[in-house]
Design brief:
alpha/beta, Rossmann fold, 2 domains, four-stranded parallel β-sheet, 12 helices
Amino acid sequence: MKHDEFTPLPHAPRDHPNLRMGRIGLLLANLGTPDGYDYRSMRRYLNEFLSDRRVIDYSPWLWQPLLQGIILTKRPFSSGSAYKSIWNEAQGESPLATITKAQTAEMAARMRTMFGDDVVVDYAMRYGNPSTRSKVEQMKAAGCDRIVFFPLYPQYAGATSATACDQFFRVLMKMKWQPSVRTVPAYSDDARYVEALARSVERAYKSLDPKPDILVCSYHGVPRRYLLEGDPYHCQCQKTTRLLRERLGWDETRIVTTFQSKFGPEEWLKPYTVEEVARLAEEEGKRNIAVIAPAFSADCIETLEEINEEIKESFEEAGGERFTYIPCLNDDATHMDALAAIAVENLSGWIEPRRAVAQAAE
């Protein structure tokens, strides 16, 4: 089928609108990014992000006056300064946007090899641009009557995976004719993802002499009560660390799980990364550490600024001497191979790779 042409519907009257049909969309989804680091862009982005009840679930009657008043008056300045320190000025965008584009291009190349132009690959952001709505509408206009929605969060959390799916479903709710859809589950214990993590650690350690005393696996934090309310995020983070340690062949003394980005007055998942790296230096004499962020599929403000600046500073002020940040998997070939394999599994039954079909025919 030529997908750039409109396809008449069988048995439809002559005056019925023709439609593009028969393709499958693969929509990658990440957290989001402001359009710029100026005050208005940051305020618009933070308002959307911090108004999400999946992220901040306090009563709007209490939370919104605080958000619209004090927080969105002051925080756009500090957040804008942080974004400015890591901004990709050449492309006029945040690193998360740059990397997500690269991941999408790599995924598209792999899907094209296996499926030709039958699978359309694109990306959307939960907050900011490009919006989930705009990309779903584009896919449908391109003839996608089926869509696989792929949140790029290895570990499931209500504040990440669930809110991305919520937004996807909100778009569908307003469509007269919905495409058939599937959502890709979290892949925290997928052997291919763990292998990609392990190889990134091995590459980093190969260039380090002496080797780090300990590897800190820093995951984005959430309030501790989310765990008590049934969110599996904490357990999946712990499992990812354990599987990574087992793949590397290490004992438990060489790796630790921590949580970063605490916000607000209540208790979050512990230990807090910013405090733990200081404790490791002060109390355990760990002067040489490496930090990796397994919950982030792409480097962003939380890794490039928070880990590599704020958390690094905490470690050094406590007596730490050598701090190594191991970048996220980003568009690394092993990572993209893993994500592509997961995507193909979720496409199964709708379409099969051409190579597999050819081999079966032989």
